[in-house]
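Readers of this paper often ask what the protein records in our data store actually look like. Such a record has a labelled line for the sequence and another for the backbone structure tokens. The tokens are whole numbers drawn from a learned vocabulary of local backbone shapes. We quote a single record here, exactly as it is kept in our systems:
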Amino acid sequence: YQVRGGSLTPGTLVINEILADNTTTASDEAGEYDDWFELYNGGTEAIDLSGYYLTDDETNPTKWEVPDGVTITPDGYLIFWADEDEEQGLTHTNFKLSKGGEVLMLTDNEGTTVDSVVFGAQTTDMGYARVPNGTGDFVIQSATFNASNSPTGVGGQTIEAESVRVYPNPVNSILTIEVPESMIGQDLQIYNSTGQCILKQAAGRQQQIDFSQRPAGFWLIRVGNHAYRVLSTR
């Protein structure tokens, strides 16, 4: 059994993740690193997307029609490539995404808006994803292509990867970031949940960042090409 447009429970089918500046995260069938976005079906039945519409232009909601035969499984994910290469397959749209920010909108085959997302300037190779998966607000984090956006590195853990240590996590006052000697001098950047870079400096061996006056929520710490997500609970 498959659900068609008009009978969906609101929130069942959502735009779950966007990557508008893809250079290394995932490639399509042609080996090209194109823009992509992910839909998530949080329901218990498959959804037939035939005749649905996707667009990056609010004034043209029927810009691209999903071809016949495209479905999304229950508790499943579906990737669309925003690459203007429709000849490459059923999930390749006739528009691209702007890394400078724009809108992405999904409309069903009865003309009802199923979901829409307005996003700002994006970070290269970083996903803009709903956290918690399928239901939460959008945050910038490491891309989770065709998979859950569930939080990682939270709940009393120290993030430790590539010899970078970020702790404590969650944080409510001082966050310590330690980097190996090989990464000293690389860019250290901190982004809030809207993708705004609020701090950029050269990484030292150890730095302490005061989070006591910063809003609660997820923050992205980026050191060179490595990214780590931290939860502020002040």
